[in-house]
Amino acid sequence: MAASVARSQLTPLSRQITAKPSQSDQTPKCIVRFRPLNIPRRFNVAVKASINRNDEKIGGNNNKTAPALHPQSILDDDEEDAASNDSLNSLPRLVCVSGPLSSAQFSNFVSNGSRLRVAYQGVRGAYSESAAEKAYPNCEAVPCEQFDTAFEAVERWLVDRAVLPIENSLGGSIHRNYDLLLRHRLHIVGEVKFAVRHCLLANPGVKVEDLKRVLSHPQALAQCENTLTKLGLVREAVDDTAGAAKYVSFEQLKDAGAVASSSAAAIYGLNILAEDIQDDCDNVTRFLMLAREPIIPGTDRPFKTSIVFSLEEGPGVLFKALAVFALRQINLTKIESRPLRNQPLRSSDDNSGFGKYFDYLFYVDFEASMADQKAQNALRHLKEFATFLRVLGSYPIDTTIVP
Question: Is residue 358 flagged as an active site residue?
């Protein structure tokens, strides 16, 4: 894809904040200092003064479709400088933004239909593509083979955003993406809740009684277990739902169908033999909207904040950590534990006879904005005894579900 990147003489500003609260529930006095940073001249850089990073660009182009991003297309760290010209050629023209996005400006970018390049995992017709289009109407949706590829595409400026699933109301959490949130330095800037409606698809002329097997993602097959059992179909798991539809179509299979979306049927020329075949009608997937820069949290609407932290081992330590929210009447909507990969086992310091035990990270979502003093006080309190704490994002709550 031919593209050009404008050069800019702008020098971004980084902000260092020093806070010295006397107690966890007192408002800190902040001293803000600015210093110039050296910026490569090959990017059109916006002036930023956000909490963690200084280098996001908002951009897009006029093409609706985009080629899939493969892991091989992401440059390795040690090859990045040598291949910078080639990587720049794959970027869209970037548009300078005058400052960090507030929650109000963030909504304006969506409603005004800015042509953002948004990465999602899967192929065309995936539920993730529909979620990306709900999050960013009129965006250029960019399919990626793997979740890792989508994260790296945002970090490498190949796309502007990523929309990836994090949990399903029936299947639970997508653990891979929790791990990737910690590995990468992206920020959660929003969420999308999307109602999943599975269809049984087949090639034209194929009837239900002709089918002997059905292909789809393992979770989709599990969510339609009762229907597929009644039909007596053998289940075959593949990487994603839309990929199953694509395979059935391209191979012109006559004895196999696919469980996928109605949009996948339209894209790959398949007939819909049955609609809404999921066992539970309340099948909703929550997606996270990821960006290189955080948005500035506000109090003009309901907000959610996502954090990850670790604790020392000991009686009541997790209870103490969660109590910092309960004491301030902050509602928790999600808690997830994941093994600490770099140090999964820790030696015991006592003589109890147990040599090692597991170390965990805790991911927590709570209903409060980081602009709220209660949330700031809660995290300041938690930081007093947490061994690690990171705010993944503070973002507006999605109160709509698209069927």
Answer: no
